[in-house]
Amino acid sequence: MLSWLLFSCCCFTSLSIAALPSAASLIFQYNFSDASFDQANLRFEGDAFFNGHVINLSRDTANGSLDYSQGRMTYNQRVMLWDSSTGEITNFTTSFTFAIFQGTIDHHNGDGLAFFLSPYPSQLHRRSAGGCLGLIPNCNTLNTTIESGTVAVEFDSFKNHWDPSNNHFGIDVNTINSTIYKNFTSRINTGIKITCTISYDGRAKLLRVLVYSKDNPEFGNYSLAKGIDLRSFLPSEVTVGFSAATGSAVELHQILNWYFHSTLQPPNTSSSKSLKLKLELGIGLSFGAFIVFVMALVFLIWWNMAAKRGMGMSNVPYKEMEIDDELEKGIGPKRFQYEELLVATKNFKEEKLGQGAFGSVYKGFLNCLNIHVAIKRLSRYSNQGIKEYKSEVKIVSRLRHRNLVQLVGWCHYYQDLLLVYEYMPNGSLDTHLYSAKSILKWPVRYQIALGLGSALLYLHREWDQCVVHRDIKPSNIMLDSSFNAKLGDFGLARLINHGGMQTTLPAGTIGYLAPECFITGKTSTESDVYSFGIVLLEIASGRRPIMPEAEPGRLRLVHWVWELYGNNVILEAADRKLGGDFETQQMECLIVVGLWCTHPNPDVRPCIRKALNVLQFESPLPALPSKMPVPIFAPPMDLVSPNGASQGIEL
User: Fold this and answer.
1) Which of 178, 211, 481, 524 could bond 501 through an S-S bridge, CB–CB 3.0 to 4.6 Å?
2) Average pLDDT along the chain
3) Against a cut of 0.90, is the pTM above it?
4) How many whole angstroms separate alpha carbon 595 and alpha carbon 589?
5) Which among 73-77, 497-501, 521-525 has the top mean pLDDT?
6) Residue 640 lies in a domain
7) What is residue 581's DSSP assignment?
8) What is the CATH number of the domain that holds 519?
9) Cβ(197)–Cβ(214) under 8 Å?
10) pLDDT at res. 428
11) At which positions is ATP bound (predicted)?
12) How far apart are CA 533 and CA 590, in angstroms?
């Protein structure tokens, strides 16, 4: 009887929720070599079409003359770039493979293709062929207005009078005259398959572009990065897609696969009439659900009283018992009842400690243990949230170290995934490094650096298996009541054999990711050491790893500090907020070790034990080159799965 009541309540509630629009992250992926892919959410304009194997953005020889052709393929739904009510801006990653073929022997080749973002809805302009790349009308003016703004990454194969060359890629902001570009050393219109990954970090306001060819390593690897607040150039809702054009010079432009992931997505409504109908249906069903819920609740209270909490059903559906069995293999942390955490946080209305990409963190008080705790609430609707949840429980529950945040327990209940941690009264390191209200004194900073090193030594060398954290940054370094450092957030962590590495999609935060992660896709203890070095430089300088607003030469922290090192004025990197109140030898040691750990070549970086020995003055300072070395990497990773579908980098 109880099961039937609960089932009925859930059905009514699910129906009423389904009738209402909901916001969630947006992910889609297309492999165009599979003709059965769903075209419903793709829009073709101009000469763009699907030929059964690839997307042609401009005409091919079977459809007439190749000259003066223009076409677009876009995602047919709006994509939320930023929330106009909160100002929150998305993180997004897109990865695609394309090919450009020379048109005819007796013609010049041109003009190129682009991935773009523009206001939603977007429409192909009739006079946007040739060098306009199908992006803007009358490109001889070079600029468009903010109202009709476009941000694009172009691949240009014809040199117009505003172009730097006939073989480059660049970032375009409200113009087809690239604000930043890089020339290719190999031709892009020879028909080779080229993969491009574009990522945007909304917090760092950094747009990054990576280009390479998996099938033709001799093509080379190329990258661009530009600091930009997209909110200044684009509205909150945008169109994303591809555009290409030819003029008197001709060529074929093809898209082979496409992956896109954004952390913000508005409700998907076909019309205001449909939205109104859904709202009316949702209200009606919600009322019915409320009546059933009251009946079920009364019966449930009676049932629990009769069974004395010993005979009632679990608060987890049967299908999830498999997850329970896997997670409960961990030792130490306990599984909490959902009601206990509701009481601890006063129905999650108590103090909110932070907000992440996949959930929020709340302060609570557990009466059963008489302690304050921090409760991370993840959304089950996010696949990444589920992965982080399972990873943290399976890994952190087995770790014991004074410089690691202790996992107290866990719980999952229908749509909620909950992790319970010891409460850190002094918050995270970043709130102190970059706060105008408080200044971390030098002895505290140096002790934090040693504590973080001790945590990494345990993860990399002293536990049974090697743990690669993959997301070391100040916001994941918590401080207890005595300002002791405790590393937390193991949602991206992975277990590997000692001395090994894992080939996977790069994960972490731009600015802290080792350069080889973008190219080789391999995460290892060396990539963790790189992140550790960035944090050491932040502790010493009080500066973030990337500062788009900084003056030239100071955009990237590592480059700036290395230049000071080469000029023998390394102490000029010290945080000015300290007012010179620091131990000179320690400051020099911290900065030099930070540079050593961020060496572009992973083979030259120290292991965490060697770095810690120098920080503890048990070994001498390393001798580093006066100029920052050029990185040397292995062949690029395979960002394309065996079936040809492109995959994106995690941010």
Assistant:
1) 524
2) 79
3) no
4) 10
5) 73-77
6) no
7) -
8) 1.10.510.10
9) no
10) 93
11) 376
12) 9
Nearest to 604, CA basis, from 637, 632, 626 = 632
Residue 625 lies in a domain: no
Looking at the structure, tell me whether residues 135 and 224 fall in a common domain: yes
% the chain with pLDDT above 70: 73
Cis check for the bond before 121: say yes or no (omega within 30 of 0): yes
Sign of CA dihedral 393, 399, 401, 404: negative
Domain residue limits at 129 = 26-262
Task: Write out pLDDT tens, residues 30-67.
Answer: 999 887 788 889 999 988 999 888 999 988 865 567 78
Contact 130, 145 (CB under 8 A): no
- Do 384 and 438 contact (CB within 8 A), yes or no? no
SS3 category, 291: helix
Would you say 376 is a known binding-site residue? yes
Residues 151 and 295 in one domain: no
pLDDT tens digits for range 169-210: 999 998 888 889 999 999 898 889 999 989 898 887 889 888
- DSSP bridge pairs for 16: none
Residue 645 has pLDDT above 50, yes or no: no
- Together in a domain, 258 and 274: no
Cβ-contact 120, 240 below 8 angstroms: no
Which residues partner with 502 through β-bridges?
523
Of the residues 60, 471, 489, 528, which is catalytic?
471
User: Sorting pLDDT into bands at 50, 70 and 90, what band is 102?
Assistant: confident
List the single range of 1-15, 415-429, 556-570 with lowest mean pLDDT.
Answer: 1-15
| DSSP annotation string for 408-441 | EEEEEETTEEEEEEE--TT-BHHHHHT-SS----
Beta strands in 349-498 (DSSP E): 352-355, 359-366, 371-379, 407-413, 416-422, 466-468, 477-479, 485-487, 494-496
Residues 588 and 440 in one domain: yes
3-state DSSP assignment of residue 128? coil
Phi, psi of 572 (to 5 degrees): -70, -10
390 domain residue, yes or no: yes
Mean pLDDT confidence for 543-565: 87
Residue 569 CA, chain-centre distance (Å), reads 35
Count of domains forming the chain: 4
186 & 233 share domain: yes
- Check if 638 is active-site: no
Cβ contact 490:392 at 8 Å: yes
Name the domain boundary from 400, 422, 444: 422
Distance CA 307, CA 293 (A): 20
* Domain boundary pick from 387, 405, 422: 422
- 124 inside domain: yes
Beta-strand relationship, 407-413 and 334-335 = parallel
Report the residue count for the chain: 651
Query: Using CA atoms, how far apart are residues 580 and 217, in angstroms rounded to an integer?
Result: 50
Asked if 502 and 468 count as a contact pair (C-beta separation under 8 A), the reply is: yes
Instruction: Give all strands (DSSP E) within 140-205, no chain letters.
Output: 151-156, 168-173, 180-183, 194-201
**Residues 241, 177: one domain?**
yes
Q: Are residues 119 and 234 in the same domain?
A: yes
